[in-house]
Amino acid sequence: MKRMIMLYVFLFAAGSVNAIEWKDSFDDNKLNERWQPFAWSMEESPDWKIEDGILKANWPYWNGQMLFLKDFESSDFIMQVRCRIDKVWQVPELASAGMIFRSPGPGKSSEDNIVPLYGFGIGDSGSRIGIFPADSGWHFLETSFKKHEIGEWYTMRIVVKGTSFSCYVDDEIVGRMYNAYFDGKFVGLSIGSNISASFDDFMITDQLDEKPASDSK
Fold first, then answer.
1. Which of these, 110, 73, 86, 62, lies nearest to 206 by C-alpha position?
2. For residue range 99-136, what is the model confidence (pLDDT) as tens digits?
3. Exposure winner among 21, 26, 97, 117, fewest CB in 10 A?
4. pTM for this entry
5. Which structural domains are found in the chain, ordered by start?
């Protein structure tokens, strides 16, 4: 029995060592080198900055911008972040902020290299799960019209496993997909057109049996 217990402890420890988990609370007020900014529009530079421990993104233009996380190589994962909509200039149905996943990664000169991908965002007019590219930009797979108040913090979480994923806002599920066929390894944060948003307490892990805590400042 003692040998079995020792073997179990050894295997558990080995599994923990192999676990992939990364967090960024942005408290050092510097953008970690693992983040790679990217703008849909080649005419404008990405605008991501950290102020008082909060990641801020400002995009008063069309299309949007992204912040890719480099060197995360798990196909199955839980990704979570706290998000706040700070301002919407126009066209609320296109203004959202949130997460992207299953992307082939950012290109050096062409936006074509980052697609196809999935996105999950919240906005003044509700939450959306979409894919890009489609015939005319984003194609929304799921839409929830529950209003998200400007200036309020919301905890967003994605659980991705195999060809399925689930999306949550404040622990409430807002959509699922069971035949997700994009297989890119890049994930990240994003904001859409004509919006200013804030992010905090980012976390990603490949331990699907663990539910990330909803930290708050």
1. 73
2. 999 888 775 444 445 667 888 999 877 787 777 654 44
3. 21
4. 0.82
5. 21-205 (2.60.120.560)
